[in-house]
Design goal:
The structure holds 2 protein chains of 2 kinds.
Chain A lengths: L1 E12 L8 H13 L3 E2 L3 E12 L3 E2 L6 E12 L6 E9 L3 E6 L2 E6 L10 E11 L4 E6 L8
Parallel strand pairs in A: 8-10
Antiparallel strand pairs in A: 1-5, 2-3, 3-5, 4-5, 6-7, 6-9, 7-8, 9-10
Chain B lengths: L1 E4 L5 E4 L6 E5 L14 E4 L5 E3 L2 E2 L6 H14 L6 H10 L7 E3 L8 E4 H18 L2 E5 L6 E4 L12 E4 L7 E6 L3 H8 L3 E6 L4 H11 L10 E2 L14 H4 L7 E5 L11 E3 L33 H21 L1 H8 L1 H25 L1 H5 L1 H18 L15 H26 L7 H12 L4 E5 L12 H8 L3 E3 L14 E4 L4 H8 L3 E3 L1 H10 L34 H17 L5 H10 L20 H12 L9 H15 L4 H10 L3 H7 L16 H17 L4 H6 L9 H11 L1
Parallel strand pairs in B: 9-13, 9-15, 13-14, 15-16, 17-18, 17-19, 19-20
Antiparallel strand pairs in B: 1-2, 3-4, 5-6, 5-8, 7-8, 10-12, 11-12
Helix pairs in contact in B: 4-12, 8-9, 14-16, 17-18, 18-20
The chains are: A mainly beta, B alpha/beta.
Chain lengths: ~150, ~725
């Protein structure tokens, strides 16, 4: 499911960026560091829609680095158990099929389908697991209106 | 979920803590339950497939499930509600088969139960048998391709592909595919199902697979990389997971025998070396952390070996003086020519014999001739000593030979399989049986003896030459065998020099060949024509591939590997701060000539012990062990180089110190006290590559400031001699 949420992020900046382009650099780094990444309970950050506030940068004692607290709005993708999603098949094995739901990898166990990579199917997420920096899902095709 | 109506008319619901499917309901609406009555029977998911810790059938998180189970188990004593109890009673009876086997090459997280794995692998085996295919595990580095990370690679070739593995690091890799890789795979596709099994990183392995096989025709997803390897030094560990039904239909091609534990279904491939300055960048021995000290055999120095050889020669010489006629033959060129012509005559005779013996060879005759012609070229590319000039044409055509070998293995397997399906007498044919059998036919009719290949008193059984010859079915004897009637049963003398034995061989009209003959036979699985390998008077046995070490190695700069090494070095320096940091960092980083490792299992010749003693001691391990240590000369050589580099102006006192102090490398890699006493100034053997190694070292020292790690771990007081000068020199370079 997609959400539009307000999030915080801290940007650690090397002193070499201090200059007229400073804020521009901070904005650029935010996009680099946040988009496409997975944030624990919010899921995958799909796109930053607006940067609301860039706080005062604090110089780190003894290092010279500066930390900018940034508040921004972003569209996030958070998969849920029992959610029905569209997926693209990436790999077919003896044990099941692997598919991608956007950035999320999903495995669907044993199936009797004529299917091949790059096909799209409709899957119900049967189980979810949050790893350190990633979600993993297990899908099922055993429900109404699934598969295609 | 069970709803109950309490006597006072209120509703209360109990929810089950376990998940499963109800198979039979024992109660009906408005039934009144008494304590202990059965409510329902249910079937729990057996979780036959798990991905990470998720069950792929029911979607349950097994880690969480385990926690709740434990929680319930601890709660049982307190709560005695009706529904809970009946549910719990059935809980304990469910025994679940653990998912242990990860059958998918590239996704080790996906695990299935042993039963299922067996089912799948039986299906897979039946499919292969139907298609009349076999499994072929293919190594990448130095088997199908050669990769370097040095942008100053040589020789140049237009086929070298440059690429970067990930966007973050700017490290560029250069890969040269072995000539004919695609033809090789295409031709073998009807016979084999390929799997990649490599010690490269996952990304690297997949990039290489894409390079060789862009349409995923050959490997599909059957790629096993270092990330999925269970054992960092052996590839054998993964076999049982990939093939739970046994590896009777698995054939392996690799340039390294040790990573497969010298498996019997392994075809040892001639290593493909294109970039002269690197070996296998994914070599397991580069960081060399995991070798237990018991495995290490006290190293024999090259010099020692030479001395031993000389001794045996002296003995031979003494004997030779008695035989003055032979002496003449030995020293004059005429005698030599004479010998050659005789050898040729002999060769014609045996050629007829071999043709009668092996029908297979006849079938491959044409291709064989082709490869024979190219043989000399092949030798030229693999022996770096021989080609100083920049040869840019790649004449390596080993894959064609390998294709013939593999096709033959395939034919043999299915011939015996067809026989087996008719009789079903014994077990199914096993490649581990068939492969050595085929190899034994190579030199089946040959009886060998060696001359000037091993020091006196060296146990014959342990020498690499003997092992190779026996693997090819040849009979190996200590001396030329002459039976009572005066006939000579020995057919070949493999010699490194013209000794008395060689002279006697000429007398009996026996082939006298160089060790290269033996090696080429071993690598190409056929009896090579002997006259190409006749022993010349200027033949240098020291440069034989039987003894020469691999191409010098360059440490990979892949981030994870380097990290491993840096931490390793750091550990080393921390534990022994009095050691020389330059030797730990620069040597293991620049790593060229010192890390050359003999391929041969060189077990020290024990002059005092009797041969039998040694054999008993090491009998099992002899064939299964590699010598990972460096010889004294190599150690002293690299010590010297490091010192020369570090202290241009401090030479005086250092030389004496070098002699008395064991170096860091000696301590960490040799593990045996035998290495400390030898003369460090003997580096004659490295004349050929010292210039290139110097260049490389400069390059690396100049560019990589990673020695910082050592700097950090050392206080100024502890900095050993030459360290500061070394830094100065480094700054100059920078």
């Amino acid at each position: 499911m997609f959400f539009h949420v307000s999030l915080d992020h801290e940007i650690l900046l090397h002193p070499r960026y201090f200059g007229p382009q400073l804020i521009k650099t901070v904005r650029r780094m935010l996009f680099n560091e946040v988009e496409g990444k997975c944030i624990g309970r919010y899921g995958y950050v799909i796109a930053v829609t607006s940067i609301d506030n860039i706080g005062v940068g604090r110089i780190q004692p003894g290092r010279g680095y500066v930390i900018f607290p940034v508040k921004y709005h972003a569209i996030v993708f958070r998969p849920f158990k029992h959610e029905v999603v569209e997926a693209i098949i990436t790999q077919v094995t003896r044990m099941g099929i692997f598919c991608k739901i956007g950035p999320l990898t999903c495995f669907i166990s044993r199936h009797d389908l004529m299917i091949q990579p790059e096909d799209s199917i409709r899957v119900k997420i049967a189980g979810l697991q949050v790893d350190a920096k990633e979600f993993f899902a297990v899908g099922t095709l055993m429900d109404d209106y699934l598969v295609s | 979920m069970v709803d109950t109506h309490n006597p006072d008319g209120t509703k209360e619901s109990f929810s089950s803590v376990v998940s499963g499917t109800v198979t039979k309901l024992h109660i009906h609406e408005w039934d009144i339950l008494s304590e202990g009555s059965i409510i329902l029977e249910y079937e729990e998911c057996l979780h036959p497939i798990t991905f990470k810790s998720l069950c792929c059938d029911c979607g349950a998180d097994l880690n969480k499930l385990k926690d709740t189970m434990e929680m319930i188990a601890s709660r049982t004593t307190v709560i005695d509600t009706l529904s809970d109890e009946s549910l719990l009673s059935s809980l304990s009876t469910v025994t679940r088969a653990a998912t242990t086997i990860s059958m998918e090459h590239a996704v080790p997280e996906l695990k299935i139960t042993a039963e299922m794995a067996e089912k799948y692998s039986i299906e897979e085996r039946d499919r292969l048998l139907r298609e009349r295919k076999l499994d072929l595990l293919v190594d990448l580095d130095q088997t199908l391709l050669h990769t370097t990370n040095s942008s100053h690679y040589y020789p140049y070739s237009p086929d070298v592909i440059a690429y970067q593995l990930n966007a973050q690091s700017s490290q560029t890799f250069y890969t040269k595919l072995r000539p004919g890789v695609k033809e090789f795979l295409t031709n073998l596709l009807p016979y084999y199902q390929f799997h990649i099994v490599t010690f490269g990183e996952r990304l690297y392995a997949h990039t290489m697979a894409k390079l060789i096989d862009p349409n995923k025709r050959f490997f599909y997803h059957r790629i096993l990389s270092r990330n999925e390897c269970f054992d960092p030094t052996r590839k054998t560990a993964n076999l049982s997971a990939l093939f739970p039904c046994g590896d009777s239909m698995v054939c392996i091609i690799d340039d390294r025998e040790d990573v497969w534990n010298y498996a019997r279904n392994l075809v040892h491939v001639k290593p493909y070396v294109w970039f002269k300055d690197v070996g296998d960048i994914n070599d397991i021995n580069l960081p060399s952390p995991a070798i237990p000290s018991e495995q290490l055999i006290p190293p024999i120095s090259e010099k020692e070996f030479e001395e031993q050889l000389e001794n045996s020669e002296h003995l031979a010489d003494e004997r030779m003086e008695m035989d003055s006629k032979a002496l003449i033959e030995r020293t004059t060129e005429d005698g030599y020519q004479h010998a050659i012509s005789r050898g040729e005559k002999r060769k014609l005779d045996t050629d007829i014999n071999t043709n009668e013996h092996t029908n297979q060879e006849e079938a491959n005759k044409k291709l064989k001739e082709q490869s024979d012609n190219n043989d000399e070229q092949t030798n030229a590319t693999t022996l770096p000593v021989n080609n100083e000039s920049n040869i840019t044409a790649d004449s390596d055509n080993y894959l064609r030979q390998l294709e013939i070998i593999l096709k033959r293995i395939h034919t043999e397997f299915y011939t015996s399989y067809d026989q087996w399906t008719q009789t079903k007498a014994r077990g199914m044919p096993d490649l581990k049986q068939i492969l050595p059998d085929i190899r034994r036919q190579v030199l089946g009719a040959v009886s060998l003896c060696f001359s000037h290949l091993m020091p006196q008193g060296y146990p014959l059984e342990k020498h690499r030459a003997t092992i190779l010859a026996r693997a090819m079915g040849a009979t190996v004897t200590g001396d030329i065998e002459i039976d009572d009637s005066g006939n000579c049963s020995t057919t070949h003398v493999v010699a490194g020099k013209r000794t008395t034995k060689v002279e006697r061989a000429f007398k009996y009209n026996i082939h006298v060949v160089t060790p290269e003959w033996l090696i080429d036979c071993y690598e190409q699985w056929e009896r090579k024509s002997e006259d190409v390998y006749n022993l010349h008077s200027n033949y240098d046995v020291k440069q034989s591939r039987l003894f020469t070490k691999e191409a010098p190695r360059l440490v990979s700069y892949e981030p994870n590997i380097v990290n491993e090494q840096v931490s390793l070095n750091r550990q080393k320096t921390q534990t022994s701060p009095d050691d020389e940091p330059t030797s730990s960092s620069t040597v293991s980083k620049s790593a060229k000539p010192p890390l050359k490792r003999p391929r041969t299992p060189e077990i020290p010749p024990t002059a005092t012990d009797t041969v039998d003693d040694v054999v008993d001691e090491d009998n099992q391990s002899a064939t299964k062990q590699f010598n990972f240590t460096m010889s004294v000369d190599e150690l002293s050589d690299m010590e010297k180089e490091v010192n020369d580099f570090c202290n241009d102006d401090e030479d005086d006192d250092d030389d004496t110190e070098t002699l008395s102090r064991p170096t860091k490398q000696q301590r960490t890699t040799a593990f045996t006290p035998t290495t400390t006493t030898d003369n460090p100034n003997d580096d004659d053997n490295y004349d050929s590559d010292s210039s290139s190694s110097q260049k490389l070292r400069d390059l690396i020292l100049g560019k990589k400031p990673e020695t910082d790690s050592d700097e950090e771990s050392l206080s100024d007081d502890d900095a050993p001699r030459g360290w500061k000068e070394g830094q100065k020199a480094r700054k100059k370079l920078l």
